[in-house]
Design goal:
Elements lengths: L7 H36 L8 H13 L3 E6 L3 E8 L4 E7 L18 E3 L5 E3 L6 H17 L6 E8 L7 H7 L11 E12 L3 E3 L2 E4 L1 E10 L3 E2 L9 H19 L7 E9 L5 E2 L2 E10 L2 H21 L9 E4 L7 E3 L1 H15 L4 E3 L10 H6 L4 E10 L1 H8 L17 H19 L4
Helix pairs in contact: 1-3, 1-10, 3-10, 5-6, 7-10
Bound molecules: zinc ion (ZN) (2 copies).
One zinc ion binds next to loops.
Length: 437
């Protein structure tokens, strides 16, 4: 006797295949429009918290798809909600801002835009981090999911976040009620284009994905005077130099080698003339780590070393160094294990295991971390989508070429590979996480 009906597993496999084919057909038909959107966004980049044209362009597109759209959430942020029956809430995030960089790509749609930064500097503007690819794929997924409402059930919250590059946009949206005025997500996902991975491949870190990023200002005080009479002064340049040198031991001698950390003094400014010992020296330091504990140990260590060196230099108690840690630091981004396992498995079965790989975490920062930190019952996942010609990756690996990094004036991802792969990945993630029962 043979079974006339397929087993449950066979039926599931067929449904998966039908779903995958439907996604494929939709994204393929969307690609020309998405690439046109990409070229338009690329030619019109806007700086952090100035993403007005960008936000209104995409808000209008989401509205036409049937999303309920709210603008100006966290200054220029956009929240687009599509409720489609009972089920979990999935938030998909794209960031919108460009960078104060003068584009040198020679693309026919290269940016010639200029604008004024928050610090009042007139600058060229470029989508040098690829956030234009993020928004294009975001719209691709929105279109696909709005057209496939019969295949999923739940609530889709698609957000466009401002000001990722200055680390303030996610915080601004949360402070403006992202999780109280709108459905609070069970899952949050996002991707970033990669200037290292071959075009169309996906890389995902397990656990830590990106680092804690702190900016520290250290004012090292001395007692100025004539350069010919050093014995009448306390030289803050010599003291600050000792501090810079001693700071090198924080990572090399105090931190566990298995727990990565970075302390980089990026600016050392003091004095104005050959023969004057100045009153103070200023150090600007970037501090990177993963755990809260290691972050605190590094910050405490900088304060301790600065104070200890000042005491050794004979400074009085009221002239100890003054340390200022920027309060708006970017916390480390964490990929929660269940969601990471689930979606990386999904990607491997959809795209093929050769296109999906585990990659190590990086010491760059990303304020996507804020959504999970705001409520740790949320599951969170960020992944990289490669944008580099595979032949160039091979050349770089052989030491025959160097690749432009993210933020380079030369960074030009393969838009079809990034947007196509990411739009598919976001769409299949949503279909998987918001299943129709
Ligand atoms: Zn960036
Ligand atoms: Zn970025």
């Amino acid at each position: 006797m043979s079974l006339m009906t397929p087993s449950g597993a066979q039926a599931d496999a067929r449904a998966d295949q039908a779903g995958a084919a439907a996604v494929e057909a939709r994204i393929q038909s969307e690609m020309p429009g998405l690439l046109e959107l990409y070229r338009d966004l690329h030619a019109h980049p806007e700086l952090s918290f100035q993403e007005v044209r960008t936000a209104s362009t995409l808000a209008e597109r989401a509205r036409r798809l049937g999303f309920t759209v709210t603008e100006q959430v966290g200054q220029t942020g956009v929240v687009a909600v599509l409720e489609n029956g009972p089920g979990p809430v999935l938030m998909i995030r794209a960031d919108m801002d460009g960078l104060p960089v003068e584009e040198r790509t020679d693309l026919p749609f290269a940016s010639t835009v200029t604008a004024t930064t928050r610090d009042g500097i007139e600058s060229h503007v470029m989508h040098a981090c690829g956030h234009d690819t993020h928004m294009s794929a975001w719209l691709g997924a929105a279109q696909a999911l709005a057209g496939m409402k019969d295949r999923w059930s739940g609530t889709l919250v698609m957000i466009l976040q401002p000001a990722e590059e200055i680390g303030l946009g996610a915080r601004a949206m949360l402070d403006d009620g992202l999780f109280t005025r709108f459905p609070k997500p069970d899952y949050v996902i996002a991707f970033h284009d990669s200037a290292e991975l071959p075009a169309g491949t996906i890389g995902y870190p397990t656990a830590w994905a990106l680092a804690n990023v702190d900016s520290v200002d250290l004012t090292v005080r001395g007692a100025g005077g004539h350069g010919a009479y050093p014995h009448m002064t306390r030289d803050p340049i010599v003291l600050a130099s000792r501090i810079v040198t001693s700071l090198q031991t924080l990572v090399s001698r105090e931190r566990d080698p298995q727990d990565p950390a970075v302390v980089t003094v990026g600016s050392f400014v003091a004095g104005a003339k050959h023969n004057i010992i100045p009153d103070e020296a200023r150090l600007l330091i970037t501090v990177r780590s993963y755990s809260d504990e290691s972050r605190q140990a590094l910050l405490d260590g900088i304060a301790r070393i600065a104070r200890g060196e000042a005491i050794a230099a004979g400074m009085a108690e009221d002239r100890m160094p003054v340390m200022h840690v920027e309060p708006s630091y970017t916390p480390a981004t964490f990929n929660t294990p269940d969601l990471t396992g689930r979606l990386s498995g999904l990607f491997a079965s959809h795209f093929g295991a050769d296109r999906v790989r585990v990659v190590p975490p990086v010491m760059a920062g990303e304020d996507f971390s804020q959504y999970y930190r705001a409520d740790k019952s949320i599951q969170s996942f960020i992944f990289w989508v490669g944008g580099v010609d595979p032949a160039k990756v091979a050349q770089a690996q052989a030491g025959e070429a160097s690749l432009p990094s993210l933020h380079s004036p030369l960074w030009a991802p393969d838009p079809e590979a990034v947007i196509g792969t990411a739009a598919r990945a976001l769409t299949i993630s949503a279909l998987d996480l918001l299943p129709r029962s």
